[in-house]
Design goal:
Length: about 190
């Protein structure tokens, strides 16, 4: 994808507008800060521990964009009284292959920004972009996986119209407990 993709999400009465854009090296310090949160460490697939780790993680996101199989977006929020936007989350479209009908989404929200609908709003923008961009290439449905006891993630799936599909058996070490598979189909 040659031009960087930037997605905009309108403000709500409780929450500023969001901007979604590909990860950059300038995000590393905020990523390390966000990665200190125990809930993120418990539930997210990969967490950044230090600046070197952060650089590797951002490089991996940039490779994903270059290869065209993984599209990670930093989710940023305007801060009142500042020209700098604050990192509040991550959404990713992954396992994209030309002609394959299925891909997967993932997300996290920084601890300080939770409970304000950041993840469902960002996920809605990612979902629309994914179908708009890849439907012509065969994409028909998006999968969302979470462990059974991750109730907050289940709520994000429900609010974002990813319907419950089935229980997935545990697959340690990356998926230690049973999970839920939710699916959203194009046009839903
Ligand atoms: C799951 C997660 C992404 C939700 O993000 P969010 O932007 O807070 O989403 P929402 O504001 O829609 O809140 C979703 C649910 O979180 C819970 N919640 C509400 N306020 C919260 C807070 N301050 N802190 C933690 N969870 C909260 C509620 O159950 C809420 O559901 P509700 O709207 O029915 O009350 C976020 O909790 C997170 O990053 N968790 C750690 C990483 C993770 O689990 N990623 C998903 C892996 S599958």
């Amino acid at each position: 994808m040659n031009t960087p993709v930037v997605l905009q999400v309108a403000a709500t009465p409780d929450s500023p507008a969001l901007v979604l854009r590909p990860w950059r090296m300038e995000d590393i310090a905020a990523l390390v800060e966000v990665g200190r949160d125990p809930a993120l460490r418990q539930w997210a697939n990969s967490v950044v521990d230090n600046a070197a780790d952060g650089a590797r993680w951002v490089e991996a996101q940039q490779r994903g964009w270059a290869v065209g199989e993984r599209f990670g977006f930093a989710v940023l929020e305007a801060q009142p009284g500042s020209i700098r936007e604050q990192l509040v989350g991550n959404v990713v479209l992954k396992e994209v292959t030309s002609g394959k009908p299925e891909a997967e989404v993932g997300y996290w929200t920084a601890a300080h920004a939770r409970g304000r609908g950041v993840a469902p709003r960002a996920l809605e923008a990612l979902t629309s972009w994914a179908f708009d961009t890849f439907e012509a290439d065969g994409l028909k449905r998006l999968k969302l996986l979470h462990q059974v006891d991750n109730l907050a993630s289940c709520r994000v799936a429900q609010k974002s119209r990813y319907d419950f599909d089935s229980i997935l058996p545990a697959a340690p070490p990356s998926f230690p407990r049973d999970g839920h598979l939710h699916i959203r189909r194009t046009g839903a």
